[in-house]
Amino acid sequence: QTTIKIATISPLSGGQSNLGTQIRNGVQLAVNEYAAQFKKAGFNLQLVPYDDQADPATGTAAARKIAADNQILAVVGTLNSGVAIPASAALAPSNLVMISPANTANQVTDRGLANMNRIVARDDSQGPAGANFIMNNLKAKKVYVLNDKTAYGEGLAAEVEKALKAKGVTISGSEGTEEKSDFSSIVAKIKLTKPDAIYFGGIYNQIGVFIKQLRGAGIDTPVVGGDGLDSSELPVIIGKAGANNVYYTTVAAPLEALPAAKTFAANFQKTFNTPAQGFGAFGYDAAKVTLQGILDAARANGGKAPSRKQVMDTIRKGTYKGLLSGEVSFNSVGDRKAATLYVIKIKDGKAALETSLSVKPPKN
Amino acid sequence: MIKTTVHPGPVTPASSGNSILEVDALTKEFGGLTAVNAVTLHVPERSIVSVIGPNGAGKTTFFNMITGIYAPTRGSIKLAGRELVGLRPDQVTEAGIARTFQNIRLFSSMTSEENIMVGRNSRLKSTFVDAVLRTRRFHESEHEAREAARIMLDFVGLSQWRNEIATNLPYGDQRKLEIARALATTPKLILLDEPAAGMNPRETEDLKALIRRIRDELGVTICLIEHDMRLVMTLSEYITVLDYGTKISEGLPHQVRNDPAVMEAYLGRGAAAGEYGKEEAPR
Amino acid sequence: MTVATPAKPAVRRPVVKPDRTILLVLFFVVTSVLLIISHQPGMMKSLGPFGDVLRNKVVEALVVSLFLANVLFAYLWKAANWAKLLVGIGSLLFVLPLAGQTDTSLLDLSIQIMIFAALALGLNIVVGLAGLLDLGYVAFFAVGAYTWSIFASPRFGEVLKYYGENPGATGSGTLAIGLVLTGVTAGSMLYIRGLHGRMAPTRLSSLSFLLAGFGLLSGIILVGRSILVLASGSAAAVASGINPGFFWLFLALSIMAAAIVGVLIGLPVLRLKGDYLAIITLGLGEVIRVLANNLGLYTAGSQGITPIGSAPVPWFNSLAGSLGFRPDQYSLLFLYVLVLIVIAVILLVNVRLDKSRIGRAWVAIRDDEIAAQAMGVPLMQTKLIAFATGASFAGVMGMIFAAKQTFISPESFNLLQSITVLSMVVLGGMGSFSGVILGAAVVTLLNLRILPGLGEASANVPWIPQEVNPANFNRFIFGSILVAMMLLRPEGLLPNKRVARELHHEDDQEDESEDGNASGLKQGGDVYSAGLATIKEDDRPGGER
Amino acid sequence: MTQSTVPPQPTAPSTTGSAMLELNDIHSYYDHIHALKGITLKAYEGEIVALIGGNGAGKTTTLRTVSGMMKPRVGTLTYLGQDIAGKPAHQTMQMGMSHVPEGRRIFPQLTVRENLEVGAYTITDRKLIEERVQEGFAYFPRLKERENQLGGTMSGGEQQMLAIARALMVNPRLLLLDEPSMGLSPLFVEAIFDIIVKLNREHNTTVLLVEQNANMALAIAHRAYVLQTGEMKLSGKASDIAKDETVRKAYLGDE
Amino acid sequence: MELSVLLPFIVNVIVGGLVLGFVYAIIALGYTMVYGVLQLINFAHSEVFITGAVVGFEIFRVLQDSAMNGYLKLLLALLAAMTVSGLLNVLIERLAYRPLRGAPRLVPLITAIGVSLILQDVLRFLEGLQGRFDLTYTLPTGFGNKFCATDSTCAPVGNFLRTIGVDVQLKDVILVVVALVSLLVLNYVVNRTRLGKAIRAVSQDRVTAGLMGIDSNRMISATFLIGGSLGGVSGVLFGMKFGTVNAYSGFDPGIIAFTAAVLGGIGSIPGAVLGGLLLGVIQNLIGVMNIFGNLLGFANLGTIDASYSKIGPFIVLVLILIFKPTGLLGKSNVEKV
Ligand SMILES: Nc1ncnc2c1ncn2[C@@H]1O[C@H](COP(=O)(O)OP(=O)(O)OP(=O)(O)O)[C@@H](O)[C@H]1O
Ligand SMILES: Nc1ncnc2c1ncn2[C@@H]1O[C@H](COP(=O)(O)OP(=O)(O)OP(=O)(O)O)[C@@H](O)[C@H]1O
Ligand SMILES: CC(C)C[C@H](N)C(=O)O
Ligand SMILES: [Mg+2]
Ligand SMILES: [Mg+2]
Fold first, then answer.
1. Based on CB atoms within 10 Å of each CB, which residue in B89, D243, E191, E240 is the most buried?
2. CATH number of the C102-152+242-458+469-503 domain
3. CB of D142 closer than 8 Å to CB of B54
4. In this predicted model, what pLDDT tens digit does every residue of A59-91 receive, in sequence order?
5. Which residues of B touch E337 (CB under 8 A)?
6. What CATH number should be reported for the domain whose range is D21-103+173-252?
7. Which chain E residues are within 8 Å of D91, Cβ to Cβ?
8. Which residues lie in Basic and acidic residues bias regions (chain C) (predicted)?
């Protein structure tokens, strides 16, 4: 029996370990599911998780280590675009494919690396989608745009701002903040400028606190965000009373809405004793794409373990069905050909699907 | 050896008329307290002068101003005609004044030798680049510093402590080491703050000889603070007495010793005999 | 009864080290073989169960660590010089690159270790020798990294484009004005400085010095701006960065840039003592990171700069090629060799400075600033030299780091990095060069090999639940190791003799840990100066008014 | 030539029976420095015992060992019948000792008054503390003048006064004085010796006195020990020691 | 924008900064206390105070449905948090710092960082065990997001606040009151009591303190107990104000708080408070700088936005320390030369 490994790179310790662990766990679940199938094909399937601590340098070092382990045929990761960019570059020379369950920044695939793919939408579709929602559904004329000063949050917010400006919407404020606890000065500014809507590019654990304080200050302005808000913790942080009028764009439908996701969520809960969240599902999907791709490549290779390049090429060419987030196939640079963006609305602490729209990457 | 390597010039006994240090109307105020009040002092070249006075009279503060550690409130300090007020302590040292401290301040992680080498630092010619490139100048400098340390250790009689950590030395020897370190800067004038504190009469005698040699052999002018009257009276050529920051008397030892104001404020009655036992009952 | 003579210190008998030449060579051979085998999948397969053991990630991490220990032992053990040389050069120049041929991550790891070693050596000057606690050291690393990255990436083209589109009122006239301003102010600053050397500074002269400084700054800004505007025409030509041949020039420039930033940061803050300095450097480190995050035009902000070029060295590449390296490994191999040379130079500079007038001055101000000053050591200048020297090491390594990563973003330069470097210094042994290098190696190995290795090895062990998988507890494990090492060897792994001398933990001197108060007997514990200014502000040394 | 400030006590304290403080073959080390090489010493209740010796003889080390600042490596150390070897200073101090350390060791950031109050840490009676503070002020009027000045800004001699006054706050049974006259002007040197004698007479305080000013120390002491490079060279009645030729030569500066 | 809008805005920004400042101040005191006696920047303090927040949270959660008076719940939470954080701090000192007495000062500093990392993961693990990551405060019934200006619970203050146009929440008022009380108590203990004097003596010279009969180890433990308890209080207040804490959320405010302590003059209690307040206000003012920049037409100011508020405190620190090298209220070391 030949051992085949896949690796994950995600933050397992540090402030974003919650999401990073979700990814790892989602992948683990898929690996568990596929183990039997691999066994039948004569392979012993294993997962090796790596911790990148959300730090580019650590992530790159992990990537180089992974590249050195010839049994690893594919990588699922990362959480942060800022890590994905250098990490995928480090993997590229050894033709090691990387499938991202979370990275939305344009640059991730814009560099045209043969090994970098993602199953999530890009920020240049997520951004305009958010912007359109703000204009069309929320009918906002004046928007306050915030970001978290990370590669992801700032990039996304910039896309939103660009789209809004193009449509003549007033930007009453645009700024970034790394603050995690105290948003009083921003809240005061919002109170002063009275926007019709607020867009915040960032991650739920920061934005949640912000919304909590915003609502606490008696401001009910709608808050819109991107996939970073896709976490069941968000309404908990905001608190029942304030968890209203919050929207976000994301690429996975709410888990409750999908029958497939139901079993996934139950399995997840059973295996890891924590509820599954968006990125758990993304990780799971990405892993399924990966594993399916490896199996396909192995089949094409006459049942023998495929080379990394074969896996890389197979995955880029393949089409994968039956995933939680629908069908996956990649364009020439590794963007998901047709992704669905969902707009979720949080009302009374409950997330519910508001609208959905199909988006395409700029290249095909 | 000493004269040629470390200290330039031949040495003649003291008593030349020119003042090397001229302090004029020097004043230091701490908040409401005037620690030193318009003190004027001229120190002749190659002389040994003393500043004495009761505890808290302002002697150490006076030294601290001369060496640039405290900025004077008013007044002027001239070394060989050059104004020192406003210079940093290291510039004062470079100008030619070295000192020891009332509370010994040796470099605690260095050996005796290294302590002295630091004293020599400001006279060395080698630069950062020399050190990195190990130029000839660097080697010369290092040699000079080491040689200075050796000579100074010999001079004060501490050769056997060369490689011992300075702060492990006995108290009295630490004082001597401080003197050696100060001498390594090739000063024109050295200020000694209570050099005999912590020494027994026998050791004080040795110290006295050492101080004389510093002046005679090295040609360094000496200004010292001391409470040991035996030392002061036999060693000094000139004495200034401070009390409450003000100069209350000055002159030759026997003049000062017999000045009633000094006796009253400082010496006590029995001091006139040069000894400090006393007959009168405790107050 | 005789006249008392001072007690002679008891002579410590020198420990006679056994000659370990044979052991060293043996160790070298064994670890080299292990290293090469464990990175040769083909060979491992043929080894059967032994191969499986080697494949275990923890074992692998240990093999790498043991192999690197070669260098350490070659340094520490008493052995014939040929053996030391053989082991040192052999492992760094032959075995490691050889193993790196099949496992590029080894090269990456070694480069990372040496980068951190250089950082630790630089910080060691500042903290270990001069006793200035700097918690924002990574700022200089960032400066070096950005100095190269901005020019060697598409950023430079973007900047030129921006200035081409927004020239403002800038033109060749501005350049002329700027040049004149720069010249005049620089001249007058030099003049005033010379004056201050001869006479005490007055309020007026200090003020005009400051004024000239501002003039100089604006002059430089004007010149810079007009050059950018005038050069904006060639934006397209540098769309993917300047000619990589400038790499060598920038090696010097990054050193200078970091040193200048070091001086600029140092000037206002070096008058502060101890922890005032610590927190303020921490803050300024953050300031630099936040600036990098906000000055999007130059640094691309949080998006980061990529791709960053590296030096073109055709001859090296063909050499590497003929040695069997793959083209994608050339650049890393080149950087490996470069970093090896740079660290050798840095180490040399360190050792030479330490045993010089400047090194003594650093230790003197660490021990007692007032006494040092009274012995003629100029405080500010000495501290600034320490700061600038330390900074320049970080600067050059920052540049190499950027070239290696091909991507940098402000996230890589956060506070945690500064703290990590500091922990390397302390862990290895403050003030000891071999110590801090070892500290850097240990911490880097821990973070990049051993902890991930633990995570990997345990990931597929069924009885270890995911929640307590070591991969999730990197901080816990790292923290525990830090604490344990500090408790077991407070003087560091390879202590500096001076520090060790101060750390006399003898039972006779009442051990504080038990019951007493006495460790302050000799107040030598302080390795950086106390947190409080020594003199009342109104009594500041005359010259600093 | 050695004129004592005060005539010797009419009745010297008894030196038979059990001593208040007893050091037996004490060895103390600083790291590798063997500072005390078997010191044996006794002090009886009500005695003034002088300890003299050259630089680095081990006088300070002896006092530190007694007060518990250091642990002896070898030897026995009893105080009031209790073995106190290795007891930390804060415990021995609570047994009625008081130590004026070498180098004064004033708390620089506490005011003069606070320094005195901390000296009375083992006393809880506020009134008594105040009484003692006033007593200290009476000994050293300069301290009263500077009641609210920070200890660290006092002049060397002023700090020495403060250190002595601080040690007297608890009215100790055993007073360890390490060069109390160091840095004091002649007038105050006299005053200090007066105080020592007064304490000894009026409160029956036992005093272990280390002094470089050996003439005066021997004049007020009952007995004396001479230390040399960590060893006890001589002991006996203070007046006899003061007459000893070698002692005079070695420590008293006679030629 | 007219003045009638701008004035309350600016007042509110400042008041918000002051409230924030009180949080910083009380965290800062935990650092200052320990710094004072050991000259150690206790990096683990940030986790100690987060532990306090977690304990407070658990108390609130347990009492969620009880009919107990809200203030009583708060009091219980404070007491529990003080106890746990205080003891944790003492334990840390005992195990990690005490064996290092007399080592170079950076050694315990690194140890403190190690302890900080350990505690972060432990806290995260404990949170993870409950299947959650971010702890969210449920405020005791009675004072959720009530505004003083509109709510009757704080009528007397409310009237006053309304007239000056300030819009604080009841919990802010509670926060300030609790913080002030702790500060006053601490100030009394340190400056007026025998314990306080002994602690200060130990902080200046442990050996000599021993000669005064002071057991320095006990005093150091006492200091860690006090510092830890303050950490507990600040944790509860922090959680109450911001609503969310997780294992890592102590780090950033911890650094700012220590900066506040330095700014005020390390070791000085009123200094820490002053520093905290100043930094709170400055942080908030820098956060709204762009509003003024835009209003007044200074394009450059307009780019100074919330992303700079993190470094505002440091820049202020540099500026102030240049002119006052020992902090605003710091005593200079008065070592006599
Ligand atoms: N920084 C300061 N702040 C306030 N007062 C001070 C300061 N420095 C010194 N003093 C006071 O100034 C006076 C002079 O002190 P100085 O140290 O000069 O005395 P001195 O003559 O050297 O005394 P001694 O012989 O005791 O050493 C003293 O009363 C002292 O308390
Ligand atoms: N803190 C210390 N560390 C190391 N060695 C010390 C220390 N203090 C004293 N010594 C050494 O111990 C020996 C005894 O010193 P001690 O201070 O007891 O002598 P002393 O009789 O008090 O001398 P002095 O008259 O100079 O005060 C000396 O050799 C000295 O070098
Ligand atoms: C956690 C996420 C929101 C990640 C984000 N999409 C990124 O690319 O970095
Ligand atoms: Mg004095
Ligand atoms: Mg002594």
1. B89
2. 1.10.3470
3. no
4. 988 898 898 888 899 999 899 998 999 999 989
5. 60, 64, 69-70, 101, 103, 105
6. 3.40.50.300
7. 215
8. 535-545
